[in-house]
Design brief:
mainly beta, disordered C terminus, 3-stranded antiparallel sheet, Kre9/Knh1-like_N, single chain
């Protein structure tokens, strides 16, 4: 009877809220936003708070990334904390009940690595600039700080 009860408890926990990304095979990069994905069942909490944690650092690192995340969404893109992502190993994403109680963990990712990116900046918007030239003259297009200027010469 005990073995059957243990099996049921294990089966119930396997179907509950689970972090699927990041994982030890799909870590994050220090450049730009990163994605968190999860699976859930109808009996899970309707929302949770995402916390980035690293117990391998000294002092231990804990940062709330997003509060009141809707469980039904299944995925969210999280922006870097104010100091940016710090490259290193031993990170975990915790899903906690709320931002007032970071120790009440509902789900936890595997350990993962935040890799140093070769790109040091990212942009949340996009812009395009183009120019053309004719055989009788030239056009120069310059984009700086959100404005585009064009000059022509012959």
């Amino acid at each position: 009877m005990f073995a059957f009860a243990s099996f049921l408890a294990l089966a119930a926990s396997a179907a509950a809220l689970q972090v699927t990304q990041p994982s030890n095979s799909t870590g994050w990069s220090t450049s730009g936003p990163n994605t968190v994905t999860w699976s859930s069942v109808s009996t899970d909490n309707s929302n949770f708070t995402i916390v980035l944690n690293n117990q391998n650092s000294y002092p231990a690192y804990t940062e709330v990334l997003e509060a009141l995340v809707e469980t039904s969404e299944g995925s969210i893109t999280v922006n870097p904390p104010s100091g940016g992502w710090v490259a290193g190993t031993g990170y975990r994403v915790n899903f906690v009940k709320d931002s007032d109680d970071l120790d009440q963990i509902l789900a936890q990712s595997d350990d993962f690595t935040i890799e140093q990116s070769s790109s040091s900046t990212y942009s949340s918007g996009s812009s395009t600039a183009s120019g053309s030239a004719s055989s009788t003259g030239s056009v120069s297009v310059t984009k700086t700080s959100g404005s585009v200027s064009a000059t022509s010469g012959s």
